[in-house]
């Protein structure tokens, strides 16, 4: 039986459910990549959490049981906790993943958490805006890149306005799709370019 790769998704009350939605759909279905992932939700405990959109989710796994060796990707969405300086337990996990060489994909407020933890001090990154991260007092401002999504080694970052580019960047970092397929994905789901649809259909049937 072939090993199914695993993506672990951190969830917490008020997590921004739309931010990782495109990515999780593509990972779970593999519809344009041919590779399906097991998508596993992880929270501080196994108690249910409620997303910003009101979805109540019972986590598959508690944070204490999360092992980078059993993962192929860690996904960190935004949430209110990041804007009040919280989330240290989650950035500690991100540090463990990065130290283990497992990719970490952070979007929106999660980038502020990484900034406070010092994980952006020496890595190229982006976020909602340079000023947003500067407010954390972090030391990585010289590495900020004004792009929709940025990949630096095992770290992928994006702002809240860029869930499609976030998806494209993660799929590209994981080597799951060719550049033409990735460009078509962004073309269709961000720009509404109907000419991109046949490219994706060819990828789906490959």
From TrEMBL:
Keywords, comma-separated and alphabetical: Glutamine amidotransferase, Transferase
Domain of life: Bacteria
Keyword Transferase in annotation: yes
InterPro entries assigned to the protein according to its UniProt record, in alphabetical order: Class_I_gatase-like, DJ-1/PfpI, Prot/Nucl_acid_deglycase
Domain (DJ-1/PfpI): residue spans on this chain: 7-171
GO cellular component: cytoplasm
Protein name: Glutamine amidotransferase
Organism: Amycolatopsis suaedae
């Amino acid at each position: 039986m072939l090993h199914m790769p695993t993506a672990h998704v951190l969830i917490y009350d008020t997590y921004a459910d739309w931010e990782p939605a495109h990515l999780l759909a593509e990972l779970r279905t593999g519809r344009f990549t041919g590779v399906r992932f097991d998508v596993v939700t992880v929270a501080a405990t196994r108690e249910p959490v409620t997303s910003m959109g009101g979805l109540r989710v019972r986590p598959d796994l508690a944070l204490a049981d999360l092992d980078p060796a059993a993962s192929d990707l860690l996904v960190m969405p935004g949430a209110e906790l990041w804007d009040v300086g919280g989330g240290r337990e989650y950035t500690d996990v991100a540090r463990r993943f990065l130290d283990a060489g497992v990719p970490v994909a952070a979007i929106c407020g999660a980038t502020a958490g990484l900034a406070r933890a010092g994980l952006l001090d020496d890595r190229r990154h982006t976020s909602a805006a340079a000023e947003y991260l500067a407010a954390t007092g972090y030391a990585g401002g010289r590495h900020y890149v004004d792009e929709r999504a940025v990949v630096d080694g095992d770290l992928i970052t994006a702002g809240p306005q860029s869930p499609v580019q976030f998806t494209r960047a993660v799929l590209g970092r994981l080597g799951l799709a060719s550049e033409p397929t990735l460009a078509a994905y962004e073309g269709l789901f961000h720009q509404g370019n109907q000419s991109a649809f046949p490219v994706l259909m060819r990828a789906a049937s490959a």
